[in-house]
């Protein structure tokens, strides 16, 4: 079993059409780090760079001290869960998870055991033979998480994977992520646009603005009255709702 | 995207496919150039008054055919769109899809069986005109056959344009109390006018390159088009220099038409799928309903007539004796083998180009298209500019320097038909492939699924059905083709259309009718298969 790995983005430059981005950040090993920022600030790009779906024009990406900048996505110690399309629509739940063990889907006995265990852990026992279209949105993301478990990589990137789910379901999924994190201690990077999600699970936070890291630190620090100004501007009224009622009353 | 390193085999496949297509077309042009250089005076001498008469006739028949197909189609499409509950509407739409599947030679025979000198209508027409019916040969025959093919095609395109009109506009129209006239002027005509140039251009293009119909119904030097003249100069006059001159003219003509079409934004590869009409809020008046009913009935009779005649004449033939003939059996076997090979090659070429285009698009990300990508992307459509007869003629004049031209007949039939069917195969494969790639690209990269594993686990399940559609469509197209085999066919290598032409030529009309029925049913079955497979291949 692997534990987490530290991630370092060393002056990583990337441009996407008009938008130029420049990331310099350190992500702590074995912690859950939330990435927030306005749309277009580069949240998904940051994750795509770490996962290897985008190649930086300059700079280096280090995971556990190893330079992975030129590595293929599959060769990096990283699993990523996307907002959608995490599953092959024509393959069963079991097969989709099994691909995490073997890209040729040739599974040994212990692989099958791992798949069964992961499905059990994510609450999908009994649904092994189903196709993705026979599952709910939440269940599909559970399958993706089950595959993360069998792949067992030290870094887990979550690109708003629960954004399309309802509030109760989203909280369940965050609890699942948190539970899995406690067991495996992998490094989790979670992109979200909801401050309460970040507060619920993340120890640390990175705030992006306009393609750069505008602030980073302990999650609680961001929500303090003297937290980063850019972040406070970004969450604006949302923060008032999140604060205790007596504070909210004072501001009116 | 950073996945370029693992996609190189896909790009290589596309380059290979492009190279094969370029060789086929380039070889034909090389043949023409060599011949033109060797016998320049002969080629120049071919530009005589007769040749200009042929050019004039080619354009004139195409223009008339286009007008006679497209103008009635506007009103037929409108009638179909205004009466979504018209009895038999579904049947009409289904029937209008049939000409696309029918080989031209089968349709030509159907037209002859109906309106020919010995056709089913000969007595009727004879008693009306008071003299013996001469049959429709020449311009009238060509026009009837062209309209038979293109009226349904244009109707379906116009109907598609009308179906795009949002339901809210119809609601609004009925709320405002728009009558038929103002609804046509304010809603229907603007919708159809937008696609009129494209549709008319496509029909004109099809008529200008039409070979089989002019060959079988034209009858004589007064009604000859460039394509038929190329064929005659090679097969009968054996005058390669003349063929070169004719081919150059044909290419120039089609290029000009296609250039005009590209400006109009026409879609050169037709679609075999039926559209489903959305809910309408139209209340047609009694007179309008009556008018539309008559119009639809006439269109139905015109399109169904030759089909029915083909079936009846075919059943009249001694089918059992025909089926027992060695020549028929051999031609059927040859046709099926060659068409299957052409279909396989066509699907392979199409798949290679589709995969390469996608891989190149992924690799460049948001940057500008490279030349290679745009060639892979749009280059495929350009094969439609070069009619099969032209490719055949080029290779014919080239290969005669190296021995027996007729020995390469199977190779020519397979390759030319494969390339001709390729744009249609691409249309069947590309949407499913690109949609699947959109969903799976990152997932495959992350999980390290590539090469054979990717083909087996990811591509094949998604592309199986569209590939089958492409195969069936390409096979139907090649089965019915008479262009290349007319040039290269001989007693040794005969396909069904070639045999059919031979039987027509020796006035064995019954045999021809029987063969036409057989060929028509084969192609129709394949097209229905293609349509059925193509219906719901996108995963939910």
Automatic annotation (TrEMBL), chain A:
SMART domains: AAA (SM00382). InterPro entries: AAA+_ATPase, ABC_SmlMolc_Importer, ABC_transporter-like_ATP-bd, ABC_transporter-like_CS, P-loop_NTPase, Thiamine_ABC_ThiQ. Keywords: ATP-binding, Cell inner membrane, Cell membrane, Membrane, Nucleotide-binding, Translocase, Transport. The gene is thiQ. Residues 7-235 form the ABC transporter domain. Belongs to the ABC transporter superfamily. GO terms for biological process: thiamine transmembrane transport. GO terms for molecular function: ATP binding; ATP hydrolysis activity; ATPase-coupled transmembrane transporter activity. Transmembrane segments: none annotated. One of its GO terms (cellular component) is membrane. It comes from Allomesorhizobium camelthorni. Pfam families: ABC_tran (PF00005). This is Thiamine ABC transporter ATP-binding protein. It comes from the Bacteria. The keyword Transport applies. NCBIfam families: thiQ (TIGR01277).
UniProtKB/TrEMBL annotation, chain B:
It is a multi-pass membrane protein. The chain crosses the membrane at residues 12-34, 59-80, 92-115, 135-153, 194-217, 243-269, 290-315, 335-354, 375-399, 405-426, 470-492, 512-530. SUPFAM superfamilies: MetI-like (SSF161098). GO terms for molecular function: transmembrane transporter activity. One of its GO terms (cellular component) is plasma membrane. Keywords: Cell inner membrane, Cell membrane, Membrane, Repeat, Transmembrane, Transmembrane helix, Transport. Residues 55-259, 332-530 form the ABC transmembrane type-1 domain. InterPro entries: MetI-like, MetI-like_sf, ThiP_ABC_transpt. The keyword Cell membrane applies. It comes from the Bacteria. Pfam families: BPD_transp_1. GO terms for biological process: thiamine transport. Belongs to the binding-protein-dependent transport system permease family. The complex is composed of two ATP-binding proteins (ThiQ), two transmembrane proteins (ThiP) and a solute-binding protein (ThiB). This is Thiamine transport system permease protein ThiP.
């Amino acid at each position: 079993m692997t534990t987490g790995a530290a991630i370092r983005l060393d002056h990583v430059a990337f441009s996407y059409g008009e938008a130029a981005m420049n990331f310099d950040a350190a992500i702590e090993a074995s912690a859950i780090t939330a990435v927030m920022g306005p749309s277009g600030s580069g949240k998904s790009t940051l994750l795509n760079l770490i996962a290897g779906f985008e190649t930086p024009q300059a700079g280096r990406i280090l995971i556990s001290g190893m330079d992975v900048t030129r590595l293929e996505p599959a060769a990096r110690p990283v699993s990523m869960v996307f907002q959608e399309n995490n599953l092959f629509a024509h393959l069963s739940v079991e097969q989709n998870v099994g691909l995490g063990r073997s890209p040729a889907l040739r599974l040994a006995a212990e692989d099958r055991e791992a798949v069964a265990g992961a499905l059990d852990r994510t609450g999908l026992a009994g649904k092994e033979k189903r196709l993705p279209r026979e599952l709910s949105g939440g269940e599909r993301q559970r399958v993706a998480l089950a595959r993360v478990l069998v792949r067992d990589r030290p870094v887990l990137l979550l690109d708003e994977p629960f954004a399309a789910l309802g509030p109760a379901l989203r909280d369940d999924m965050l609890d699942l992520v948190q539970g899995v994190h406690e067991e495996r201690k992998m490094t989790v990077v979670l992109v979200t646009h909801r401050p309460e999600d970040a507060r619920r699970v993340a120890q640390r936070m990175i705030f992006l603005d306009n393609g750069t890291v505008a602030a980073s630190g302990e999650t609680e620090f961001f929500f303090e009255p003297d937290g980063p100004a850019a972040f406070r501007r970004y969450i604006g009224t949302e923060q008032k709702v999140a604060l205790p009622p007596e504070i909210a009353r004072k501001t009116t | 995207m950073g996945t370029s390193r693992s996609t190189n085999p896909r790009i290589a496949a596309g380059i290979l496919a492009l190279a094969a297509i370029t060789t086929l077309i380039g070889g034909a042009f090389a043949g023409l150039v060599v011949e033109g250089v060797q016998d320049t005076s002969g080629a120049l001498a071919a530009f005589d008054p007769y040749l200009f008469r042929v050019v004039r006739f080619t354009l004139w028949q195409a223009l008339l055919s286009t007008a006679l197909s497209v103008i009635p189609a506007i009103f037929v499409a409108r009638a179909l769109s205004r009466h979504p509950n018209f009895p038999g509407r579904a049947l009409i739409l289904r029937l209008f899809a049939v000409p696309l599947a029918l080989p031209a030679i089968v349709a030509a025979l159907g037209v002859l069986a109906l309106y020919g000198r010995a056709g089913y209508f000969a007595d009727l027409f004879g008693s009306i005109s008071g003299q013996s019916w001469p049959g429709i040969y020449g311009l009238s025959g060509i026009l009837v056959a062209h309209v038979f093919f293109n009226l349904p095609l244009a109707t379906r395109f116009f109907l598609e344009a009308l179906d795009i009109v949002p339901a809210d506009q119809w609601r609004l129209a009925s709320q405002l109390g728009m009558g038929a006239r103002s609804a046509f002027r304010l809603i229907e005509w603007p919708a159809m006018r937008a696609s009129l140039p494209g549709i008319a251009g496509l029909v004109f293009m099809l008529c200008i390159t039409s070979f089989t119909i002019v060959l079988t119904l034209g009858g004589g030097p007064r009604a000859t088009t460039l394509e038929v003249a190329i064929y005659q100069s090679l097969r009968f006059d054996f005058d390669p220099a003349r063929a070169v001159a004719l081919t150059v003219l044909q290419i120039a003509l089609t290029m000009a038409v296609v250039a005009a079409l590209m400006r109009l934004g026409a879609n050169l590869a037709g679609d075999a799928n039926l559209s489903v009409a959305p809910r309408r809020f139209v209340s047609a008046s009694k007179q309008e309903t009556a008018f539309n009913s008559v119009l639809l009935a006439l269109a139905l009779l015109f399109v169904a007539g030759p089909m029915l005649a083909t079936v009846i004449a075919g059943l009249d033939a001694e089918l059992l004796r025909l089926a027992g003939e060695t020549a028929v059996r051999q031609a059927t076997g040859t046709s099926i083998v060659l068409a299957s090979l052409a279909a396989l090659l066509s699907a392979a070429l199409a798949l290679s180009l589709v995969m390469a285009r996608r891989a190149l698009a992924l690799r460049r990300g948001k940057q500008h298209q490279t030349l290679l990508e745009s060639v892979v992307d749009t280059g495929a459509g350009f094969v439609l500019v070069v009619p099969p007869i032209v490719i055949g003629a080029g290779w014919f004049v080239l290969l005669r320097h190296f021995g027996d031209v007729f020995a390469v007949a199977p190779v020519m039939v397979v390759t030319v038909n494969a390339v001709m069917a390729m744009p249609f195969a691409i249309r069947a494969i590309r949407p499913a492939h690109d949609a699947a790639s959109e969903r799976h690209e990152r997932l495959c990269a992350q999980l390290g699924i590539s090469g054979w594993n990717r083909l087996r686990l990811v591509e094949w399940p998604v592309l199986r059905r569209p590939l089958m559609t492409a195969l069936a469509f390409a096979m139907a197209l090649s089965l019915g083709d008479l262009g290349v085999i007319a040039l290269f066919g001989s007693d040794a290598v005969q396909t069904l259309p070639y045999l059919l032409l031979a039987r027509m030529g020796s006035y064995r009309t019954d045999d021809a009718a029987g063969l036409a029925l057989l060929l028509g049913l084969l192609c129709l079955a394949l097209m229905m298969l293609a349509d059925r497979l193509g219906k719901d291949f996108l995963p939910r």
